[in-house]
């Protein structure tokens, strides 16, 4: 829930009493706040980016298993036995492995990068005063994590915190997609989409060539085992290829139009800044180049205002 409070109400309340002027809430809310504080203390024993969510941990672990399965079938079942000694076999194996490594690294960065967390419980008099607001201005407070809600921030019920420029919570990366990890999420969908298309093209070519030949000299496994591997690979490629293609296009559209998934759903109207080229540069880090495709490059943090939010 979001609460809009006039700046002067907070200040006048502070003048009346020496106690903290966080707005009064009912008993239920107070209990919720206490519980939030307890959880906050507990959270200090694990990294800030790690979200304790069973579905998210399962899905993110499954991602690596699926990538490794794809690598095994493409390299171990298709390429090396089918093209023994051929340079093409090694070229495809190296390219496919590079895509797999880049997909895995993009996933790791998306999962382990703070998406833009606003610290829980930072709605204090001191922080509100630092905002430099004047009479008539409104401060937005999230009643679930007791933070000062910045513009375009949304509360994630899975992460139990407010996230700057939150797009959505993704169980496949066990994290929110927000201001600071969107690039890595886009790269993750891009590389999985590429891997899927690449594996399906190699598998279809392999099946067409080998089925004419009764699979002779095509495989080190028995033909039925090989067919099962290929069917699973094609199913995985089709399913995740389509899924990541849709996600990739949606994310790119979100960056170009400067509208997060939540803003699109809520049809929130706001003044947009810059043109689409500037937005792409801002998200992917500078002018177009190899760094746009690298999950190893770090992003400039645009924390021009409200630095104290991170106290
Ligand atoms: Zn919140
Ligand atoms: Zn989340």
Automatic annotation (TrEMBL):
Its main location: membrane. InterPro entries: Palmitoyltrfase_DHHC, PFA4/ZDH16/20/ERF2-like. It is found in: Membrane. It is a multi-pass membrane protein. The chain crosses the membrane at residues 62-83, 89-110, 184-207, 227-248. Its EC number is 2.3.1.225. Keywords: Acyltransferase, Membrane, Transferase, Transmembrane, Transmembrane helix. GO terms for cellular component: membrane. Residues 142-267 form the Palmitoyltransferase DHHC domain. Pfam families: DHHC. It catalyses: L-cysteinyl-[protein] + hexadecanoyl-CoA = S-hexadecanoyl-L-cysteinyl-[protein] + CoA. It is an enzyme of class 2 (transferase). One of its GO terms (molecular function) is protein-cysteine S-palmitoyltransferase activity. The DHHC domain is required for palmitoyltransferase activity. Belongs to the DHHC palmitoyltransferase family. This is Palmitoyltransferase. It comes from Hydra vulgaris (Hydra). The gene is ZDHHC7.
